[in-house]
Amino acid sequence: MTGEDPTTADATQVVAIDGPAGTGKSSVSRLLADEIGAQYLDTGAMYRAASLAVLRAGLAPDDEDAVANLVSGLTIDLRDRDGDTVVLLDDEDVSTAIRAADVTAAVSAVAANAAVREQMVRLQQEVAQGRFVVVEGRDIGTVVFPDAELKLFMTADTAVRACRRYKELTGKGMSVTMEEI
Fold it and tell me: What does the pLDDT look like over 85-130, one tens digit per residue?
């Protein structure tokens, strides 16, 4: 990090944390953001919100044109509430709903849509503009914030990742099996 004051209005400083699901990106990112006085930005939650909207609209996640059209009209916002990220989809709190198994199953197809990715990358860059942020998600350090001040890539064994996700989901009251994860 530079010696500049990260709170100045025109300073944008980014710590990018990348890696596959279940490696602890969210946990580490939240802790780091809190420790260094930065805002936490969970970009994966944005894709999950878009995926939830696609499912609610009854669209096939791989119908590129229909999905891109739907997502272009959405308002996705992330807010901090008492240290937790609240995900709003058209002003509805969908923080729990975006972690459901059907959303998890759809998010890869939605995120693979080039038009959706373009919209999300633009939104993520806008949210970070002028802020000091710790941003986590896939392709964060290569595509979204290639000039990030610091880039971290996290990994973990597949069994550890599955166990972490299982505990996360069941801890939120969701009924899932390890096989589904």
Answer: 899 999 999 999 999 989 999 999 999 999 999 999 998 998 889 9
pTM across the whole model: 0.77
Contact (CB, 8 A) for 177 and 162: no
Cβ atoms of residues 13 and 1 within 8 Å: yes
Distance CA 120, CA 111 (A): 9
Residue type, 31: L
**Alpha carbon separation from 82 to 28, 65, 86, 140 (Å, rounded):** 17, 38, 10, 25
Determine how many CB atoms are found less than 10 A away from the CB of residue 12. 18
Under a CB-based contact definition with an 8 Å cutoff, are residues 25 and 151 in contact?
no
CA–CA distance, 132 with 37 (Å, rounded to integer) = 8
